[in-house]
Amino acid sequence: MGQQFMNLKDKINDIKFYKRKVFSTGISKFRFITIIDMLLKSLIFMTLVEVSSADKIKFSNISFKFIFVNLAFILLFYSFGYLFSKNKQIIYYIILNILFSTLLIADLWYFRVNRDFLGLKNIFFSGTFNPVGESLYQFKTIDLLFIIDIVAIILFVFIKKIRCSESRSVGKFLFTLRHVAIILLISFVCIDVLSISGWSNRMLTKRWTTLMSARASGPIGYHLIESARTLSKVMNPLSNSEKDEIEEWLAYNREDLEPNEYSGVAKGKNVIFIQVESLENFVINKSVNGKEISPFLNKLTRDGLYFNNIYEQNNAGNSIDCDFMVNTSIYPLGDKITALNYGENVYSNSLPRILEGEGYKTISSHAEEIGEFNWTELHKNGFGIETIWDVGDYVYEETVGYGLSDRSFLTQVSDKLKSVQEPFFFQAPTMSNHGPFEIDEKYRELDLPEEVDESYLGGYFESVRYTDRQIEMFFEKLDEMGILDNTMIVLYGDHGGVHKYYNDDIQKLDYEGNWWKEYDNKIPLIIYSKGIKPSVIQASGGQVDIPTTIAYLLGIDNDKYLNTSMGRVLVNTNRDATIIKGNVIKGNVKSEEELEHLLKSYEIGEKIIKNSYFGRE
Question: pTM for this structure?
C-alpha cells in the first residue's frame, strides 16, 4: 500500500511539474489560451448550427463527442506557429485566431440562409453561391462571442506584455504534426470505419446535409475536406477517349424517327411535375376490400396517357436521384449520391433550362429545409431553376407521413400558382405516402381486416388512398382557377415503397389472393392534359425518359435535347427495353448491339457526371 501511495504521489508531482513547465512563461500561457479559445469557438459554432434558434445557447446543447477531432484540426494549423521565430509567433497566432473567427461568422451567416457552409466550390463553381438568393447579412447578438474573445486575447498580450524569445523549431512543428496524424487516424477508424458514432456521422464521407457532414470533422476539418474534393474535380480532365465514348453512346441512343401525332400536342402549355412519394405501379387500377386503392389516379389512366411499363432507375440515392433524372435525363451515380457530391455540376441540357429558353418561368418546390440532400443547390445551379420555394414559403400546419401533409402542401401550391406568370414549369414532391406508412385513423377509408390494417401493407394502401384524394383536390382547384385548361400535369412515382423497404414483412401476409406480393420495380407515369387523346403507352422505360418525352409533347426542337439526353421519347420509339440499378434489363431487347448499349448506361452516366461533361465549354 505504501509503495502504491508513493507511486501516486510521484505521478501527482509529475503533473504539477508539467503544469508549471507549460505555464512557466507568458508565451506558453498565450499558446494554451489560443488553443482552448479556438476549440471552444468550434464547439459553440457547431452548437449554433445544430439548434433551431441561434439567439440562445444552452450548455446542454454543446456536443463534446468529437472534441478530439476538432482539437486535432486546430493543432494542425497551430503547429505552423513553431516555424516562426520570436514575436512573429504571437502575430501568427493572433492572425490565425482572427481568420478562424471570420470563417466561423461567415459560415454561420451563410448557413442561416442556405443551410450550407461557404467553400472553395463557391469560387470555382460560382453558380453554387447563395442559391436561395437572400441577404447573407444575418447578424445575431450571440455572434459577438466570436469577436469578444479576440479583443480579450489581444488585451491580454498587451497588458501582460507577452513576448516570445524562442527561435523557430522544426522539431516542435513535426512533433505536433505527428500527434495530429495519430489523433485523426484513430478518429477515422472509430468514426468512419467502425461507425461507433452512428451512421449519420462521418469524417470523410459526405452525408445527407452539410450539418451531418461537418459534425465529426468540425468546421476546420469540413473545409479542408471540401477544398480537397473541389480541387480534385477542378483538376480532373476529360480524356479524349472518354469524350468519344460518351458521344458514341448518345449518338446511338438518339432515334431520328418521323414525328407522330404526339409531337407538340401540348405545345405552349404550363407543365407541372408531381413526384409522388413511394408510389408503386402495382396499386394502380387495383382494389382491396371492394374499394379502389387510388380511384382518382385510376381515372387519370383512362383520361390521359398512362405508361404502364416504367421502372425505377434510382441508384445510390432514392427520391433525390429521381429528382435528378427527371430534370437531366442522365443516369445517376452508384458509388455515391449524385446530388450530395456533384451539386456544383451545371447541366446545360436540363429540362428547366430548355423550357426557360422557350419562355417558361421555372419553379421548384420542396416543403423541407433548404440544403436537405443538397436539393437547393442542385435545382438552382445544376438544373437552372429560376425560383425556389422551400419550407419557409409554406404554413406548416399539419403533418402527415414524412412532413407537411399533401392536403396542406398541394392546397398552398395551387394558391401560389394563381399568381405565377404563364407559361410556367413547376415541380414538387409529395411527402405523405412515406414509410413506415403509419397514417392516422381519421384518414383511413379502406376498412381493411385488422391483421392487414396493422401491417406495412395496409398502411401503404391507406397512405396511397390519402395521397390520391389530395391529388384529386389539387386538380379540382386548378380547374376552378382555369389553370388546368392550359396545363400538362405529369405524375410519377419517385421509387418503390412497401416492396422496396418492407418486402420481407409483407410476404408473411395472406390477403385477397396475394396479387400484391410481386415486386416488379415499376412506378406509374401518368400525363394528363385536356385535349390529349387518352392512351396506354406500353413502351418499357424509366425516369430518364420523362424529360425527353415531355419535351417531345411540348413540340420542342429535337436538337435541343436529344443530343444531350440518355432517355428516349416514349411516345415515339422503336425500342422496348430499359435498364435499372444492378444492370438489370427490363423489357424486350432486339439486338446484341442494343443490349451492349443498355448495359453501359450507368457507366456513361457516371462519366458524364464526374467529368461535368455538359458543363464544360
Answer: 0.88
